[in-house]
């Protein structure tokens, strides 16, 4: 059952040094506020999992908290590179970053296997690609009926999955709608689940395209209005494309980045963060 | 983006974008990468193929955005879609399920067999690899869509003799490689650049210059290509953009820059 | 693209002697009217696929049109046996019935593999069960990462899938909601798809829990109000539990069954069927 | 259903149903088979466990029906649910995903190790097998739920020395078999009948009579069991149904029979 509690306490209790953490959200509903709380608490040596690392992981990587990244596409969508990610991979700043790299189809299926408590998933993937040469989480299986050889990818079962959703009720049931990405799979694959929400409502009204995560698969719900910014929450906010564009020059420079994190994350609290982050 | 002196009234990028859109004439469904492919696919809907079903890897089927999305997860893609599905379903039932005619990809590096690198760049001995974004959906898009279109700017940095890393296989080392690997789709059928259009030779699968954009010479294309580029016996010239095409393209781009 | 056409013509064009046909719907939205049209047209030697054969397949089996049944639970839900199914299996009346029998988890995953165009699916299933001894569509695979042996089930790719839905628009896009069972998987696994609908609407309004099948994955849409009776269409009708109970004595007796089919199916048309079938 | 002479005021079926409901005290989530398990689970919600989350294989999570559903796909199960999911998701993410505490099953035949047959009955040489409905969800429910409860009427036809077919494994041939097969759950913990309750012996996993319903004797149970039934050193007696339990049970059943 989900406890409804402060973001500070939920992060402190659920996310620990050395954990494997998935913060999911495909452009939409990215849990930035929770990531910033991780930075404020200095939770480190993390293995981060995410299909599209995006600016949220650029910040965590640049803050020096990440040991390893499991991913399939690491860019600032529509803008360009993730400079902190590149600096870590290319130059080991502020620390070396180990990679476990996949395709989207492979990552999606790794979450599906994790949610299904299977050790692996099967796909017709990676054919002719060099990707399998750089990871030990891609292998092959042979179809016992047709003899066809297919790709096998190892299940992902994060210690913690963090997502942002539009609403929870007082019992801690959560509903999200719009682009829901791999959030259900990432949540059900994890040992612990933290959900930040825009608001608590008396009753969850079923929405077209909505998915409901019942309270008994969630550990904590924290109310963080705007907690996806600069990503967005359909029905509550729009994507702050200007922020994503403004991020590029900040992230290009180590000092500018460090200053930005200090001013916009480390010295703020979850409560005051949103207004200042623009 | 400066106008080319030979073809006043439009830029080379616009030539590339308009021709990329035209390549979608007749297609039913298109799996759209962000950036240039998304520009082309949205322009196709505004011009040659109003019924084209746009599919984005974020899970939207049948998106009808009125402005160019900055990212594949922009809200308008979901709001205007016929259906929004979870990402695993998109990759398993729709893409791997063989439901999609055309995959439209960009690339950082491409070789003579339309193989793609979007992973790492070799910057020479004793230097660390340069990091690119990675695969995204491309390996399975290229394998499973009925056919593949590619769009990228022409330069010796991007059209290379040997890829530093094969992220996504196009035609491998030549004819038969796709069949040998059990790939359902026919693979890349055209690479549209700001200079012209390359297509795999039917016999060798090697990318061959088949069309030039107005005002571009074969020599310019060869100079911008990192291998000894094959040239078709007869090289055509693409039609200049029509006023309607240009107007539609510019309107899409302008709308994409508007604040919300 | 889906053509909107009469049930008679759609069935005649899409379903042929010897086909493998899946008519899905988990209690809800069972396409009875289409099955009755198959009976009227005498399309025979069918391999029928369905998780829960139910009264709809009892009728097709009793009518002598079925060579083989692929299934996981064959009963009249809440009432008892399917007597025509039993008579065919036990006594070969009106013809012998070959079986390919699974568990629900296995059947669901066979459809998933079919929709994913994979030759098989993996599950942690059938352990300690005799079921695998009677079919060649269950085998095993070994996880290349952990060494665990898991069940593999062969993909299902019906020649035709038939489903009933609440609504289509004029372009042939379909929406169904409520219990949606395995209908999406069954439709996407099939070579041809026929959808009967309660009505055509000007525009499909997105519904909570709704799934949309775009027109370009469907071959034909036929408008058959009440076409799921005695099953139901959420928002349009309720399940006719009395019919399911009344079916038991009809199906127990070969003559009573034959008479019922003659009077309620063979001598009626899709248009007049519903009123008479109660 | 006649009242038993020794325990006026309720029937043996009601004893079975009330005790089956009581067995769900403290459970969080229950995967509910149709028929007797559904009666028990709905009665539990009305009595000992109002917060019990009912999960039906038709895809409903958290159904709160006000009358007994005739089938697992009755409309009310979906309308009152917290969430309705596709059937493959139900079996893969929720059941196989290890999310469900209790699986509640019926059975046609059960043996001394709580293995289940719902597939075929051997009717003797030269006679065709008698056909039962088949497996449904049971093999994976029994394997993957945290624990399993079973409810069925006691008779030598249903409690047999040797199953004609093992549809669903309970404890196999004894302790250790489940672990050997990598089954996550602990398997059957109680078989509730109209005569009493059998539980697997902690040492041998063999079903053992541990409780009798009021007015039932050990000899009656042994006579209705097709093998030499083990009996616990101390056999308890179940509490008679309370007036509240009986009222709730009868109200549920009456509502289930109302025309809609």
From TrEMBL, chains B, D:
<protein>
    <submittedName>
        <fullName>3-oxoadipate:succinyl-CoA transferase, B subunit</fullName>
    </submittedName>
</protein>
<dbReference type="InterPro" id="IPR037171">
    <property type="entry name" value="NagB/RpiA_transferase-like"/>
</dbReference>
<dbReference type="InterPro" id="IPR004165">
    <property type="entry name" value="CoA_trans_fam_I"/>
</dbReference>
<dbReference type="Pfam" id="PF01144">
    <property type="entry name" value="CoA_trans"/>
</dbReference>
<dbReference type="GO" id="GO:0008410">
    <property type="term" value="F:CoA-transferase activity"/>
</dbReference>
<keyword id="KW-0808">Transferase</keyword>
<comment type="similarity">
    <text>Belongs to the 3-oxoacid CoA-transferase subunit B family.</text>
</comment>
